[in-house]
Structures are given as structure tokens and as C-alpha cells.
């Protein structure tokens, strides 16, 4: 079986003894005056694309986003994407893993999970200028590599993600404590779902991992996104299946096996019920 192509970060931080990896490049450096076309693939790191100006198309987990000025994208490890970027584009491309940057205190961690869960943000010109200035500072620190530069980058990333979160519709809204708790539980569930879907497919299994009852977890997901836990489990299974169908040449029986289905006919019926077409038809029609 052929896995989905995975890209890795080439650059590491020498002063980081824990092996953390980080890199930032200007988009002009990446493009070198030519159009960029990256076919479907995924990363084992976080990927931040900040477009000061540009045109093209960015497809994230099969959702297309036309590229335009002042757009910011954040991808989590494992997400599948395809990128087409025109030669005249400008901005920054930043990549890092959790060994390099992972907030430790609960407030920063909650903010980071909220930011990394938001794949796309269209930013007003004035606010993008602030975000761009932070990325320029990170770029200069990484380029000059003066003493303590890794710590300066991490601190600036904290500020960058605060600014990114402020792009919400109600930036001055102060949520109630119970809302914050439910949001934290939902984010923890979403992470567990994304990383365990091939082996865990029951509501009770996720509820147990979160020390909640199935009823409580259902109430949280309905409040957060208006969907039941079962709905979200099914959506994640289909998303993983689509990733394999479109990013690898694997046979349907192999994809079913990767997703934890011993009975290929059951997997095909499930996929058709959820999407209206068989896995083979989906692969053929999408291409």
C-alpha cells in the first residue's frame, strides 16, 4: 500500500537540544519568479501561509479556497492540501513542529488549539499589516540567528496567534466559564477524533477518553458545531477515506483496511450512504 505523500521540515534549530524543527521563508524565496504547483500531499508539521499579495488556489481537505491578498492559512499535521500560487505573490511561509512550539500553560494552549483549528482567515488590510510585521520579526530572527533567537521566535508566535484569533466576528466577546469548558472539551475531542479514527469509531470510546458520558459529549458537540458525536465520527471517516482515495493509488480494500474495516463491502456501503457514491466512483469523478 502506498501512503499519502508526506513532506518534512528540512531546517532544525541548532540551539534546540530537543530536536525541534522550524523554518520561515519569504514567498518570493520559494517561488523564485515562477508559478508554484504542489499536488495533494500532507505534512508532519504545522504549516502557515500568509499572503500579503497573491493569486491562485489552495485546497485543504478537498475544500477549495481562492487565494487573494491578506489571506492566512494554518494547516495541522495530517491535513491533505494542494497549492497553486502565481509567481508574483508575496508574503511568508512558516513551518514548525510541536517539539519546537507548543504552549505549555492552559490559556496559551487553549488559544493555540483555537488558532490551529481555523484553517483559513481573511484579514482586513490594517490588521494584516500587524500580522505581517510579526512574521517579518520572526523571519529576521531566524535569518540572523543571534543569541536566544529561538526563544524570541516562540514569544513572537504567541503574539501572532493572539492576533490571528482576534479575527473572530466578536473579538471583544467574553465567553462564560461553562462555554470555555465546553469549547476546551470539544477541541480535545476533535484532536482525539483526528488521531484515532482508524481504531476508535464509537461515541462511548471518545466519551470515556474525555471522562464524560455519551450524553454530555453529544451536548457539547451540538452546542459547538450543531452536530452529534456520531455525525462527526462519520465525517472524519469519510474525510480520511477521501484523503487516501485522492492522494494515493491504493486499492479500495487496502484503504478499508487502513481505516479499520475488515469487511470491504461494509465500508463501500457506508461510504456510499454518506456521500451518495461508491469510493471508486468518487475517485474517478473527483479527478
Automatic annotation (TrEMBL):
InterPro entries recorded: AraC-bd, Homeodomain-like_sf, HTH-like, HTH_AraC, Tscrpt_reg_AraC-type_HTH
SMART domains, alphabetized: HTH_ARAC (SM00342)
Any one GO MF annotation of this record: DNA-binding transcription factor activity
Domain HTH araC/xylS-type: 187-285
Keywords for this protein: DNA-binding, Transcription, Transcription regulation
UniProt keyword annotation of ATP-binding present: no
Pfam families, alphabetized: AraC_binding, HTH_18
Source organism superkingdom: Bacteria
Protein name (Swiss-Prot/TrEMBL): AraC family transcriptional regulator
Organism: Niastella yeongjuensis
Classification of source organism: Bacteria, Pseudomonadati, Bacteroidota, Chitinophagia, Chitinophagales
